[in-house]
Amino acid sequence: MFSFKVLLLILACLWISDAATDTLGQGDKLNSSDHLVSKSGNVTLGFYKQDYGETWGDKGSGYYLAMWYTQDTLNHPIWLANRDDPIADDSGVLTIDNTGLKITHAGGNPILLFSLQSTAANNIKLVLQDSGNLVLQDEDSNRLENRTLWQSFDYPTDTFLPGMKLGVSRGRNLSLTSWLTQSIPAPGAFTLEWNPVAGGLVVRLKERVLWTAGESFENILPLDPLNMNYNFTNVSNVDEQYLYYTLLIEEYTPEDRRKNARLVLLDDGSLELESRLLLFTSGTCAGDITENGCVRWEGPKCRSNGDKYEKISIRTTHKNSINNTLMGNTSLSKNDCKDICWKDCGCLGVNDQYVLGCQFLSGPYVQGGLDATSYQVIIRHRSRSKNWIWILISIAMALMIAIVLGILFYLRRRRRIRMEGKIPRTKN
């Protein structure tokens, strides 16, 4: 009986070890019920279902090949293989065959991650590393080191991991792109890039620079100095120019930081550290604000430096006050709509209640009321110089009116005195 229990225990351990493999070999398959787990168990790769919370692409959810921290309770993916091409059901299979590394699924063409057609390789393996890097390697016995054919670090999504690069490396431009919304992984309106010329670490809203971290990261919100365990390094040479960071493990380094270190570009353009600390809040940068790394918004001539969006409850007063031409475009988020409106001189604001698609304000409105709707309205700013001009004009007009009234009063009084005969008329 004892021997039988020992045998069962050994078999269970072998099954767990096999189930928790970190490697996929040529000819192997990873389906929707399988996972790759890194050697330390910190990172997991597998298929998962993402509920959109909205109807996007005629669907309410999609399946993705994703990577996540195993012990992360939020389960937010740190990398997605097919964010642009979600699978409709749980039929996805990751495999390596003679054509390359790809995802096959029912009812659609394979999603090719790397092609082997022009690559001479003998022993190919896909390895999930503890760093969160998924690496396709050629393990040729004639070489001292394995040759990297493809790696997920070269295709970042919205998450910056320790050891990952941002910038230009091996001719590839590496940057983060936010999700379209909080629940839709498709590329959104914001990007995070490394650009020393533009101010180091830069957040963009489409083409517009929204915020810079500064050369010494002085514009990042202050952190607890006792827990600042990040070492940022800038590499610059003829072929490469990029930023990476490493995690310094010390005695008081929090446990979640040891296992879940990451910097995430949120769908609203904010930067979040370890799912709990905001390093930058995009809502603080609007209009002519230039403090803490914010960059003044540029736009057409109809936009002044001080113009900015404000959330206001309004009621339209004309049938043509609303523009619904982009209402059904589910590839546009609220931030895309605000960017489009800013560039259109005829646009006054954006409906704040729609997650996807744009409803623009383009005509008369009044604030408040029982049936008011929340809008992001562009508030025009009048510069101080213009204010002073109007003040001076008002003072001058007031003085002119006072002088005219004084003259009229004097003439009226003089006429009354003459009528009473106190001042005789001059004889010619």
From TrEMBL:
<keyword id="KW-1133">Transmembrane helix</keyword>
<keyword id="KW-0472">Membrane</keyword>
<keyword id="KW-1015">Disulfide bond</keyword>
<protein>
    <submittedName>
        <fullName>G-type lectin S-receptor-like serine/threonine-protein kinase At1g67520</fullName>
    </submittedName>
</protein>
<dbReference type="InterPro" id="IPR036426">
    <property type="entry name" value="Bulb-type_lectin_dom_sf"/>
</dbReference>
<keyword id="KW-0732">Signal</keyword>
<feature type="signal peptide">
    <location>
        <begin position="1"/>
        <end position="19"/>
    </location>
</feature>
<dbReference type="Pfam" id="PF01453">
    <property type="entry name" value="B_lectin"/>
</dbReference>
<keyword id="KW-0812">Transmembrane</keyword>
<keyword id="KW-0325">Glycoprotein</keyword>
<dbReference type="InterPro" id="IPR001480">
    <property type="entry name" value="Bulb-type_lectin_dom"/>
</dbReference>
<feature type="transmembrane region" description="Helical">
    <location>
        <begin position="388"/>
        <end position="411"/>
    </location>
</feature>
<feature type="domain" description="Bulb-type lectin">
    <location>
        <begin position="21"/>
        <end position="149"/>
    </location>
</feature>
